[in-house]
Every structure is written in C-alpha cells, then in structure tokens.
Amino acid sequence: MTTKTRQHPAVTLSSVSHQYSGARQATLDAVSLTIPKRERVALIGPSGAGKSSLLALLDGRLASWTGQASVLGKTVLPGQKLSRAHRADIGFVFQEFALIERASVWQNVLNGRLGRMGTLASLMGRFSVEDERAVTQALEDVDLIDLTERRTDQLSGGQRQRVAIARCLAQEPKLILADEPISNLDPMRAEAVLQLLTSLAAKRDITVIFSSHQPELASKFADRILSLADGKIIVDRPTSELTSLDMRVLYQASEQPQLLRKIG
Amino acid sequence: MRGFPLTLALVAVVIWSGVSADIDLSKLVSSGVRMGDFLSRMYPPNFSVWPEVQKGLLETLRIAILGTLGSVFISTFLGVLAAQTLMPAAVYRPVRSLLALIRSIPLILVAMLMVGAVGLGPLPGILAITFHATGMLAKFYAEAIDDVQPAPVLALDSMGASGLQRLKFGIWPQMAPVILRDTIFRFELNLRESLVLGVVGAGGVGFYIQTYVRSFQYDKAATVAIVIAVLIVLIELINSAIRRKFS
Ligand SMILES: Nc1ncnc2c1ncn2[C@@H]1O[C@H](COP(=O)(O)OP(=O)(O)OP(=O)(O)O)[C@@H](O)[C@H]1O
Ligand SMILES: [Mg+2]
C-alpha cells in the first residue's frame, strides 16, 4: 500500500474534454498528461485558453467534463465534490487571494488547518499545538511573522499574496494549484513570490502547478512548461530543454491568441 | 433656462404657505414678550425633579434596550428573507417593500397606535420601537448577508472545510462586524427616539416634559430638556467612539 501511494503520479488526465454550456468552443480538448510527484509545472496560455478551468477541474470544481482524471491517486469525477481529506491534500492559491479581509493574518492562515481537524473542535477554537506550529512555520517561510496580528485589509497586494500562500502551506497539501499567483503583482514582487512558492514547495516535496501569462518568468521557476491554447496542449517540455523556438511559440501563445489561431 | 419654471413653482409654494396658513408675522413680533416670559420661567431649572427624571430615564433606557432586542430578533428573520443572495425575487422583493413601508411610518404615529392598542406605559413604547427599528435593521442585516464575498468561502471549501466551518470561519467573520456596528447604531437611534415617546403616553422620560409643560412648570420642564440634551450629546460621543472601532 505504501509503495503504491508512493508510486502514483500527482496528476493523470486522459482525454479530458470540457465545454461550457452555450460556448461555441471547447475549453479543454482531449487533454492527456501525467505530472509526477514533486514536479513544478507552469501552465502558460492566453486569456481564455482554459487554464483556470483545468485547475478547477483538478480541484474537483468543474462540472460536466468527459475523460478520466486522477489527482493524488484518487479519481476525480465531473461535478462531484472531492472528499474532505482529498480537498485538504490539494492546496489552491486563488488569483484574487480569497482571504477574509476583516480577519487577521494569523486567522487567515489558521483557516488553512480547518480541513485537517474535526468540525466541533474548530468551532470551539480548539486548535492544536501542531496547528499553531504549522501556521507559525508558514508565516515564517513567507516572512510575515511580524504582521500576524494585522488585519488583512491593511496589507499590500504582495503581502496578501504571501498570506494566501502561507494559508496554503499551513494546510500541508501534497499538491498546490495556483491560478495566476503573480498576475496581480508588479514584476519585482512577481518574481519574489514565484521564487517563494516554488522553493517552499520543493523544500516540502509538494507538487506545484501554477498558471501564468509570463513564459519567461514561469520557465525560470518551473521544471516543466505546459502551454495551453484553445483547450489543447501545444507545448510540453522540461524547462531545461526549452528552445528559442519554443519560447517564441510560448510568447505568441500567451500574447497573441488570434495570430496563433490563424497559423494553427 | 430649464430651472426657471422650477424656481417659479418654489416661490409660489412659499408664498402660498405664508398667506394661506393662519400665520400673522406681527404676532411673532408681539410674542417676543411672551417668549421672554416663557424663557425666564424656565430659569433657573428646577432640579428637585431629578428623582422623577432619573426614573423616567431608566424607563427610557429599558424601552430602548428591549425595543432593540425585539427588533434584532425579528430582523434576523426578515433580514434573511430580504437577502437577495439567499431568496428568490418573489420573496425578497415583497419583504423589502414591507420594510420600506415600515420605515416610512413615523415612530410617534406607531407609538400612538400602540398606546391605543395596549394602553399607556412602557409596553407600547417597546412595541413601537421594535416595529419601527425593524424597518431599518432588517434592511441592514439583509445587506450584511448580501455583502458576504463568496470567494473566501469557496476557498475554505476547497481547502477541505466542512459546511459549519465555512459558516463560522468564512461567512460569520465577514458579517459580524457589520451587524454589530449596525445594531449599535440602531440602538443609539432607538435611545434617542424613545426619549420623546412619553409625550404620547408610551413611557419614559418624555412623559415628564409633557406633564410639566401642560401644568406650566417650565422650570421643571427645563431640567428634563437639559438632561435629554446632555444625554444625546453623550450618546453621540459614545457612538462615534464605537464606530471608529468597527469599520
Ligand atoms: N462559467 C463559465 N461559463 C461559460 N464560459 C466560461 C465560464 N468560465 C470560463 N468560460 C470560458 O471558457 C474559456 C476558458 O476560460 P478559463 O477561465 O479557463 O481561461 P483562462 O486560461 O484561465 O483565462 P484567463 O487567463 O483570462 O484567466 C474562456 O473562453 C471563457 O470565456
Ligand atoms: Mg484564469
């Protein structure tokens, strides 16, 4: 059993297709891929390519798709909510942070522990020493340990993004899905946050899939690049083997979807 | 040029009010003496009535507290029914109209009707406050519910939080400060408005103003007026301090 759980990949998709009702085009068009554990994958693609939809699918939040999907060794079914334990193993960093604005930094990060504890204990505020340790560690890792009492709505964008990452780390997930974790940040902060996310994940043996509009930055911190256009994977390569032609395609794919569509 | 007919209409209205009502400007001039007499009889205020005033004030406070409590109770139900994010239009629309209707009825009118229904004393005052305050409080509660951002709640769900955990850690922290602030704000209004309820016999300190004025004991009425004024300033100070705390 132990060997088996060690061996399964973090994600496997086989001919996954999806189309929003009423949409003319498929969001995902027969996508198949395997992502081994501990890999850091960048998902590149223009607006509307289907990045968010794919990440939502892996998080068990997409309805009415076809094909097979398995995340952390457990099957994901269309429109079927994942079990609590499964959800707790998958961390999600939202583009708009999705923090409780009126709550403190500490409370927001502590919320990351909810999936790992009994409902009754949490309602009575009985967080364990282990919970507090995980929260403290996460806050230290994102360098926010001095702002724990600060209300979240009094933070800068970069600080909020770090709170969101800390919440995700406190959750101690095995897989982190991050939907454009840097698109709300200025270039300097973007690089720092991406560096933080990928290095902390590596340190903790966490698989990471993050989406981005910025191929260059993404390839700097990922092991592998996946480029999505019109629901299809058009580039899939280890970042170490990226050619300048690949980069050109990636740039075109991330910036000029119309042009690419004409070529294709 | 478009404003001209409006200006004309306004002037006409003012002239009409002046000439058709039974108002004689000369009366205002000659009443100077009477007014002076009235004011001089208020001075010095007679503080011997303090025990009665104190009793009345405590009753006013009780009316405001119980009226607010009743209103919080009813507003919790009506607030949920008036929430766009929870109810279909067929429910929240009529409930919202009802709340608007309630808000539009002046408290003093409600109080008079309540006195007619249940007799003199603090009870009609409490009922009137409950009724009147609900029009505003239920609307505030509905807005607090509607303002809850779904994204952070969805995030908790995605992290494995259970339904009750989402309520406690996702929805409640977004609503609680708003609801607390609005309730305190409404309590302040209730306290302020219930000061005059006694004038129509619905209990509280207002009763004494009416009694003393009717019996020409202006020095005593002055005491009540001063106490009420001081109280209102006090409430205002406390309220602004509290409002700074919750935002
Ligand atoms: N709820 C929805 N209903 C219908 N169509 C949708 C819905 N959500 C997304 N779409 C459409 O599906 C396609 C893929 O959307 P998706 O959000 O996955 O793209 P994305 O790559 O994340 O884009 P972005 O970079 O703008 O975030 C788009 O054409 C979008 O308009
Ligand atoms: Mg997206």
TrEMBL record, chain A:
Signal peptide segment: none
Keywords, sorted A to Z: ATP-binding, Hydrolase, Nucleotide-binding
Transmembrane helix recorded as keyword: no
Cellular component terms (Gene Ontology): plasma membrane
Pfam families attached to this UniProt entry: ABC_tran
Domain ABC transporter: from-to ranges: 11-255
Known EC number: 3.6.3.27
Molecular function per GO: ATP binding; ATP hydrolysis activity; transmembrane transporter activity
Coiled coil regions in record: none
InterPro entries: AAA+_ATPase, ABC_transporter-like_ATP-bd, ABC_transporter-like_CS, ABC_transpr_LolD-like, P-loop_NTPase
Entry similarity comment: Belongs to the ABC transporter superfamily.
PANTHER family with a match to the protein in the record: IMPORT ATP-BINDING PROTEIN, TRANSPORTER, PUTATIVE-RELATED
Name of the protein in question: Phosphate-import ATP-binding protein PhnC
Provenance organism: Pseudovibrio axinellae
Automatic annotation (TrEMBL), chain B:
Gene3D superfamilies referenced in this protein's UniProt entry, alphabetically: MetI-like
GO CC terms, sorted: plasma membrane
Keywords, ordered alphabetically: Cell membrane, Membrane, Transmembrane, Transmembrane helix, Transport
Domain of life the protein comes from: Bacteria
Compartments where located: Cell membrane
A Pfam family of this chain: BPD_transp_1
SUPFAM superfamilies (alphabetical): MetI-like
InterPro entries, per the entry: MetI-like, MetI-like_sf, PhnE/PtxC
Domain ABC transmembrane type-1: 57-239
Example GO molecular function: ABC-type phosphonate transporter activity
Membrane protein topology class: Multi-pass membrane protein
Transmembrane segments: 63-86, 189-209, 221-242
PANTHER family hit by this protein: ABC TRANSPORT SYSTEM PERMEASE PROTEIN P69, PHOSPHONATES TRANSPORT SYSTEM PERMEASE PROTEIN
NCBIfam families per record: PhnE
Protein family according to the UniProt entry: Belongs to the binding-protein-dependent transport system permease family.
Protein name stated in the entry: Phosphate-import permease protein PhnE
Organism placement in taxonomy: Bacteria, Pseudomonadati, Pseudomonadota, Alphaproteobacteria, Hyphomicrobiales
